[in-house]
Specification:
heterodimer, A: about 110 residues, mainly beta, four-stranded antiparallel β-sheet, B: mainly beta, six-stranded mixed β-sheet, about 0% helix
Chain lengths: ~110, ~110
């Protein structure tokens, strides 16, 4: 299995631009999670899906952030418009049932 | 231990030493705990887990200890190797793992050859 696949690995964008991060979970996993990692706040859960349905989006910072999971093999996290304070590493993770998550390699986002 | 500010606590050891990384968790209802290892430029990787009905669990070169009375978790790494250098996170959850994981701030382990 190729694991959780995220793209792009790095993204540099100008303030105000739209950014879309992509994730392909492990086949057969029924839960998908988006995390943001910064030195200040560590790993923060933004949103998670179960069976493609958003269950808890209370961690989404504000309306500029949105996430979708149109099918079991794909999810996106969109930021529109992006701001410098959104600069962070964004991780996608997936799991099946109870237990640990498998993380992707992350997308390092820099907003200038 | 856990970081409460900008700086990750750091543990520096010599190759071959045993390492102990500590974690204080906050939720007394948590019943499932996991240690993750994160190497530079990579996502967190599962190391070992433990459920609240256990006090100790051993893996290959790693042991996790759980003290529910004081809400403390530790990760012991035997014969630490340079490849063990990474940031280590503890994570906790309720409902036997069916709730979402909450991660600690992490501890950086530096292993000198």
């Amino acid at each position: 299995d190729a694991g959780v696949i995220q793209s792009p690995r790095h993204e540099v964008t100008e303030m105000g631009q739209e950014v879309t991060l992509r994730c392909k979970p492990i086949s057969g996993h029924n839960s998908l999670f988006w995390y943001r990692q910064t030195m200040m706040r560590g790993l923060e859960l933004l949103i998670y899906f179960n069976n493609n349905v958003p269950i808890d989006d209370s961690g989404m910072p504000e309306d500029r952030f949105s996430a979708k999971m149109p099918n079991a093999s794909f999810s996106t996290l969109k930021i529109q418009p992006s701001e410098p304070r959104d600069s962070a590493v964004y991780f996608c993770a997936s799991s099946w049932g109870a237990g640990g998550y498998t993380f992707g390699s992350g997308t390092r986002l820099t907003v200038v | 231990g856990e970081s409460v500010g900008l700086h990750l606590p750091t543990l520096s050891v010599q190759e071959g030493d045993n390492s102990i990384i500590n974690c204080a968790y906050s939720n007394s209802a948590s019943d499932y705990f996991i240690w993750y290892k994160q190497e530079s430029g990579k996502g967190p990787q599962f190391i070992i887990d433990i459920r609240s009905n256990m006090d100790k669990r051993q893996g290959q070169r790693v042991t996790v200890l759980l003290n529910k009375t004081v809400k403390h978790l530790s990760l012991q790494i035997a014969a630490t190797q340079p490849g063990d250098s990474a940031v280590y996170f503890c994570a906790e959850t309720e409902n036997s793992g069916y709730s979402t994981l909450t991660f600690g701030k992490g501890t950086m382990l530096l292993v000198s050859p």
